[in-house]
Design a protein that fits this description.
This protein is mainly beta. The protein has a 22-stranded antiparallel β-barrel. The chain has a five-stranded mixed β-sheet with strand order 10-15-16-13-14. A four-stranded antiparallel β-sheet has the order 3-2-6-7, with no helix packed on it. The protein starts with a helix and ends with a strand.
């Protein structure tokens, strides 16, 4: 990380205040007492609850004997009682699966903290037959959902794109069977969705897009999905939403587990995965290591036809060539507990990929290819002493991309260009529990992007070095108010967030004939949310939110050197959106039946939308449109029978993304390359060691021009999966899986003249050691 500190201490860009001067704000937040502590004793009694083998015990119940004071340990085993009067006390600690323990007498002195470490011994006991009815905990943030590790394993997806494909409001844009995959949210473009990996931005600064295909799903602990603008929480680039992928463990796992997987599929595809967890015995350290190797020839037959007026309806068919991909990824994540108050989590990735660039199906290229290397390292230092938590995040990533075609004809379309993109991020967050159910986060984030572009074939077309520095201050307040005595409302939850960002973008001059360029922008992003919920046999939640978000132009759009085909536009303004949404969800449990339904309405008004379009000379150039309006609705119903033996899923998303530019040929037209509706129907069957799934996805037509006179037709995709698990003993397990995607061998297109493959066959064999 020395490289980070050397870069962070360089001459600050004009108009930017380094975040280190703002650290005292967070330290002050941790030092200010909670309101109820005024005029009370400063004495506190705190400690940590551990198991007999040194692992933390979360959610253990701790009470002070002879009083009504109770609390629970957090995810790292810590607990605290504030403003305890001086005296001698004894604690009683209990947790399911452990024997109840009474602590030795603890003496609390005036205005001095008292600490204690408690070890629990595991308890073995027999439970007779019983029925458990769980209360459903609804999320409080509108448009936000979390896919947990348990849900990932139950889904049976082989990759992150497969996992996200069936999530509400998401649409995956793919370039081939194993190629780059970007995500769209509610009619957005991929560059309007911020993708994070353990808090580090994966979006490339050059084109603003993030590739999801190279992240092994086995390393993922959970995925947070924010549908709708989220700049108040995450800053620039979160105009349409956020995909936050988290690989770092949240607690010490302490259980060895090794998984190996091989996959063989159509088009000469091979994949191998290996993950290992906690293979080093330690009471303080938890590690997870993963490797992923993949290759595919990728050539497949295709046939498609654009429809509508203003062009020919010629059927394009043939064999898609130059789709070969070879790549590998190595991941490391871990958690190290330094002391009862300090913890360090970390992650790293090394990725290398070589893939063909076949170009459009109407002008295929067998020689062009790209080479991409990605390096990522990050760490978080966490100090936690209830009710305060302070977290320092340091992240660094590097994207090294090379695009080569030196043998194609004519000479005018040859290219050999290289992008080097470094991203440095420092984030300091202070979290304070103010009173029961209330939590306040204050923080500052400092991010520095450096992009260097060399056009090796035509040096005069090189962009050279550009830098973007962004400093942000943010605050998030959340409050939950239980109203058990005011039925039918169980809980009211409200939230307010705001973030102020200053961004400066600079480009160095390459010659005496050029002048340096500098652009500065300031933005404030507010967000407000309110929700009510009730849990029980009939559970429900109603949530709504309103906010503003924005996205800075990507550097290619600003500074791309002009030629006969394309040119940048240094006068581009940031895209800004005003967005709101309201949703309702209900859950009903009747015997063996578990029914969940939900409906969501959303609205987004985007101004200064950035669109690439040809100018009067036929050169493609990005421009700011006057406005665009995106509205829609999504419906979902899930019916589960038994313990999820049979589950039926239905999702229907309707999105109307309209152009509001002042042009009679475009105003009121649907924005290009996004379907009006996406409907999904899925059936899952699981019984003992066998699981079956069948999914159908209907996708509406997409328009390919602003006048909406030409389009690619609607299509339907059917996917089938079957898995058989064989448990050799309580530690070893073998899983085999067969998958058939696009069973009906449908021809369809996601991007202009980039046809997708037909039917895919695949088989997986997975061996696990350390199964519970």
């Amino acid at each position: 990380m020395w490289r980070y500190f050397l870069a962070a201490t360089e001459r600050p860009l004009r108009g930017i205040t380094p975040p280190w001067l703002l650290l005292f704000v967070l330290l002050l937040a941790g030092a200010i007492p909670a309101p109820q502590s005024l005029a009370l004793s400063n004495s506190r009694l705190s400690g940590v609850v551990l198991s007999e083998d040194g692992a933390v015990v979360p959610e253990a119940e701790i009470s002070i004997a002879g009083t009504a004071l109770k609390t629970v340990s957090n995810t790292r085993g810590y607990f605290a009682f504030e403003h305890v009067p001086p005296g001698n006390y004894q604690l009683e600690i209990s947790s399911p699966g452990f024997e109840t323990v009474n602590s030795p007498t603890v003496e609390v002195h005036p205005d001095l903290p008292a600490t204690i470490q408690i070890h629990l011994e595991r308890e073995s006991y027999y439970l007779g037959k019983f029925n458990v009815r769980a209360k459903r905990e609804f999320k409080s943030i509108a448009g936000m959902s979390v896919v947990t590790r348990k849900e990932i394993e139950a889904d049976g997806a082989a990759s992150i794109p497969e996992l996200l494909e069936n999530q509400e409001g998401l649409f995956l844009q793919k370039s081939g069977p194993q190629g780059r995959t970007q995500v769209r949210i509610r009619g957005s473009r991929p560059e309007q969705v911020l993708v994070l990996l353990d808090g580090q931005k994966l979006n490339n600064t050059a084109d603003g897009q993030a590739d999801l295909s190279g992240i092994p799903l086995e390393m993922v602990e959970r995925v947070e999905i924010y549908r709708g603008g989220a700049s108040a929480r995450f800053g620039p680039d979160a105009l349409a939403g956020v995909i936050n992928i988290i690989t770092r463990p949240q607690t010490l796992l302490k259980k060895i587990r090794v998984e190996g997987q091989s996959r063989f599929a159509s088009w000469d595809t091979e994949e191998y995965r290996l993950t290992a967890r906690d293979i080093i015995p330690s009471d303080r350290l938890s590690l997870k290591l993963g490797g992923h190797w993949r290759r595919t020839a990728g050539n497949y037959d295709f046939s498609y036809r654009p429809e509508g007026s203003g062009g020919t309806d010629t059927v394009h068919s043939g064999t898609r060539i130059n789709n070969a991909i070879r790549g590998h990824d190595i991941f490391l994540t871990g958690l190290y507990r330094i002391s009862r108050y300090l913890a360090l989590d970390f992650s790293g990735q090394l990725s290398s990929t070589r893939q063909g660039l076949p170009d459009r199906a109407t002008r295929q290229n067998q020689f062009a290819h790209s080479r991409e290397n990605h390096y990522l390292a990050g760490t978080s230092l966490i100090f936690q002493s209830l009710p305060t938590e302070i977290k320092l995040d340091l992240n660094y990533s590097r994207y090294d991309q090379r695009f080569i075609d030196t043998t194609s004809e004519p000479v005018a379309i040859r290219f050999n260009t290289r992008f080097e993109n470094d991203i440095y991020t420092a984030r300091l967050t202070g979290r304070r529990t103010l009173w029961t159910g209330s939590q306040l986060d204050l923080g500052t984030e400092h991010r520095r992007d450096r992009l260097h572009h060399d056009d090796i074939f035509r040096p005069s077309m090189s962009i050279g070095q550009t830098r973007r520095l962004n400093t942000g201050l943010f605050a998030v307040w959340e409050q939950k108010i239980p109203l058990k005595d005011f039925l039918p409302i169980g809980t009211i939850a409200c939230e307010a967030a705001g973030r102020y960002d200053i961004s400066v973008t600079e480009r160095d001059s390459l010659s005496a004939g050029e002048t340096p360029e500098s652009r500065k922008s300031e933005n404030f992003s507010p967000h407000f949310g309110l929700g009510i919920s009730q849990s029980g046999i009939l559970s429900y939640a109603i949530r709504g939110s309103y906010g503003h978000s924005y996205r800075l132009p990507e550097l290619n759009a600003l500074f791309w050197k002009g030629d006969v085909r394309a040119a940048g536009n240094p006068n581009l303004r940031p895209e800004k959106s005003e967005h709101s949404q309201i949703e309702a969800e209900i859950n009903l449990k009747l015997g063996l039946f578990d029914i969940t339904g939900g409906m969501e309405y959303f609205h987004s008004h985007v101004v200064d939308l950035i669109i690439w379009q040809p100018n009067f000379q036929g050169v493609w150039q990005p421009q700011n449109l006057a406005a665009a309006q995106i509205t829609g609705r999504s419906d979902r119903v899930t019916l589960a029978l038994g313990k999820d033996i049979l589950k039926c899923r239905f999702q229907n998303g309707l999105t109307t993304a309209l152009n509001r530019v002042a042009d009679p040929n475009q105003y009121g037209r649907q924005l290009v390359f996004f379907p009006h509706y996406i409907t999904t129907l899925g059936i899952d069957f699981k019984y003992r060691l066998l699981s079956l799934s069948y999914n159908i996805r209907w996708v509406d037509e997409v328009f390919v021009n602003n006048a909406n006179t030409r389009s690619y037709p609607a299509y339907r995709l059917d996917d089938f999966g079957a898995a058989l698990t064989v448990k050799i003993n309580h530690r070893w397990q073998v899983l085999t899986r067969l998958e058939v995607d696009n069973i009906r061998d449908v021809d369809y297109v996601l991007m202009p003249h980039y046809p997708m493959p037909g039917r895919l066959w695949g088989g997986n064999i997975e061996v696990k050691y350390g199964v519970e």
